[in-house]
Amino acid sequence: MKARTKLFLVAVLGLWALCGSAGAIEGSGTEAEPYIITNVDELQAMQNDLDAWYELGNDIDASDTQNWNAGAGFEPVGDSTAHFTGAFDGQGHTVTGLYINRPSSAGIGLFGYVHSGAEIKNVGLVDVNIYGNYHTGSLAGGSYGSSTISNCYATGQVTISASGSSDAKSGGLVGSNGNSTISQCYSAVNVTALSSRYQLGGLCGYSRARSGDPPALIINCYATGTVTSNGWKVGGLLGDADGRNSTVSKCYSAGRVNGTHKKGLVGYNYRSPAIKDSYWDTQTSTCSSSYGGTGKPTAEMMRQATFANWDFANTWYVVEDETYPFLRWELSGYERAVINIEDAIAEKHEALERIDAALEKEQAASDALDELLGSGDYGDLSRRDVFIARRKIRFAIRLEKWSKKALEISIKKLEEALDALGWEPEPLSEPIAYWKFDEGQGDTAYDSAGDNDGTVYGAQWTTGQVNGALSFDGEEDYVDCGNPSELNPEYVTIEAWIKTSSTGSTDSIVGKDKSSWPQQRVWGFRKRGDNEKLEFIVFKTDSDFAGIDDWDFATGITNISDGIWHHVAGTWDGSIIKIYVDGQEDGSKGYVGSLQQGQTNNVFIGKMETFDPSYFNGLIDDVRIYDRALSADQIQQLYEDGLSGPGKGKKK
């Protein structure tokens, strides 16, 4: 056994009592024979050999890290004095459930600090829960010294503590990027500062390369998570770009940005960094300005033509009018096959159009030559010259027709191949109830998905986000939708558009609740009065008065009492309660079970009938209930469908 392998095995075995069991580690830590990481204990042991080469051998479950180190969780690999300088290749695998709770520490992430040409690539971090102070990111707290991070992504939550210096230099993927490169990466992490900390971004908090320094480059990246801080230098993609050699190129952000000094793409720039060919969504971000980049509405952010100088043949892909651009490496082999076939079909159809245009011109030329031969007036030409020209034109026409036939055969075979793959996008399932509120008058709100018509009490008809809506006064206005059996699913999604500027009061959006604790309580979706954020409460089956484990809730992080329309959704799939705001996950809580059944309480819109009934103050539009937890993509689709404004949303 090589000495390096012995060293790494000793390190892993030293972690056995703390983290779990360990076995033999394959590899020797060299480029030719990297260590193969197969579990979270081996992942942690990388800190004992910081200049080695590593690969993931499979997906890693890191959820047990929440029980490590007396609640502090995973210890970042590499710190401010002993950096990670090796290479890490995730081989396309994921690390799920990474937990770090170190609110007084700097250099927080799977890797604390990487330096001196370190390389991290091809790994996804799923559902991270990271709590740090300074230089905090899900993947790396800081990346320096011409290191590279590529083809990586993260989802989950990064939280920055209220204590410490005012600058945080923290982001969804990387905290601080100094003279290094982040390429073809994305972050769907929500980044939240618990005070007015600054230099926060959806992907990266701070990127610096001043004149004469090696470059700091963020290229072909995007961020979709929510960024929240009342400090300055807060951006949807990057908090602060610093220095002439700091570049952001071909990037975009589409997440919501909350705060007093929020900016759409880049929160601040200093000493003339280059922000090139980059964009942000002005609607989803709620930001009209940025220190660099171009703001576009959602519809334009889903069109290839918007993104000047981007490489959609090799790096990016977009489903026109359906998705934001995404990186081609995100596609599975199956999806790549489908897209390659679709691209080939599109190219051949374009070739057909060119052939048809050429045929039209060639046929016109042939007709003109026939007319010339018939007239006998050849001018300076001989009759032989005209015959030769006509023969060449007719030969060209035959070639074009042969090419057209070959293309048509090729297209047919490609279409047959596409049919054989059975490719279909994920369908959006039908709701079990859907109140559009488009009636405009009367005291009945019709259910367009079933027979669950509601009776309107006090609420007034008005213009909504999508056609009509109802206005509720916060006192005794509500819609009673009854208690039909189909509104008693085991799992659920509640979805609506709301608009409120009410503060300090609990506003109930939709509830199936009753003032009998807890037997008659099923679920409630509301805005809390103490923090102006969403709360989704569920009560599981067989609940009784015996214990608090009979119910639980998730709370959002976005203040929604700002007087503008928000798309809101709450889901429970029997394991995780989730909240979404404007198409983005806004909060979650693990909770196992299924909804209570057989209760006699009605479904109310604009009201929850608890011990002290609470009402909604504002506008509600397009309320849907599903008997399953919709996916994040489906929630995003519902949000995008309603963005067009009054009378223009897609009506499912």
What can you see in these coordinates?
The termini are far apart. The chain is of the alpha/beta class. β37 and β38 form a beta hairpin. The protein folds into three domains: 102-329, Pectate Lyase C-like (3 Solenoid); 335-421; 433-641, Jelly Rolls, CATH 2.60.120. The strands form eight sheets. The chain has a 19-stranded parallel β-sheet that branches. Strands 34, 37, 38, 40, 45, 46, 47 and 51 form an eight-stranded antiparallel β-sheet that branches.
**CATH C-level class of the largest domain:** Mainly Beta
What is the number of independent domains? 3
Radius of gyration: 30 Å
Based on Cα principal axes, name the global outline: globular
Strands, count: 51
The pLDDT mean sits at 87
Structural class: alpha/beta
Provide a short characterization of the protein structure:
18% of the residues lie in helices and 34% in strands. With 652 residues, it is of the alpha/beta class.
Layout of helices and strands, plus pairs?
Elements: H1 3-14, H2 16-19, E1 35-37, H3 40-44, E2 53-56, E3 60-61, E4 87-96, E5 99-101, E6 106-108, E7 111-114, E8 119-132, E9 134-136, E10 140-144, E11 148-150, E12 153-160, E13 167-171, E14 174-178, E15 181-183, E16 186-193, E17 198-201, E18 204-208, E19 216-219, E20 222-223, E21 227-228, E22 234-235, E23 238-242, E24 246-249, E25 252-253, E26 257-258, E27 262-263, E28 269-270, E29 274-276, E30 279-281, H4 282-285, E31 294-296, E32 316-317, E33 326-327, H5 333-375, H6 383-421, E34 433-435, E35 444-445, E36 454-457, E37 460-463, E38 468-473, E39 478-480, E40 492-499, E41 507-512, E42 523-527, E43 534-539, E44 551-555, E45 566-572, E46 576-581, E47 584-590, E48 603-605, E49 607-608, E50 614-615, E51 617-626, H7 632-641
Parallel strand pairs: 1-2, 2-4, 3-4, 4-8, 5-8, 6-9, 7-10, 8-11, 8-12, 10-14, 11-15, 12-16, 13-17, 14-18, 15-19, 16-20, 16-21, 17-22, 18-23, 19-24, 20-25, 21-26, 22-27, 23-28, 24-29, 25-30, 30-31
Antiparallel strand pairs: 32-33, 34-51, 35-36, 36-39, 37-38, 38-51, 39-48, 40-45, 40-51, 41-42, 41-48, 42-43, 43-44, 45-46, 46-47, 49-50
Helix pairs in contact: 5-6
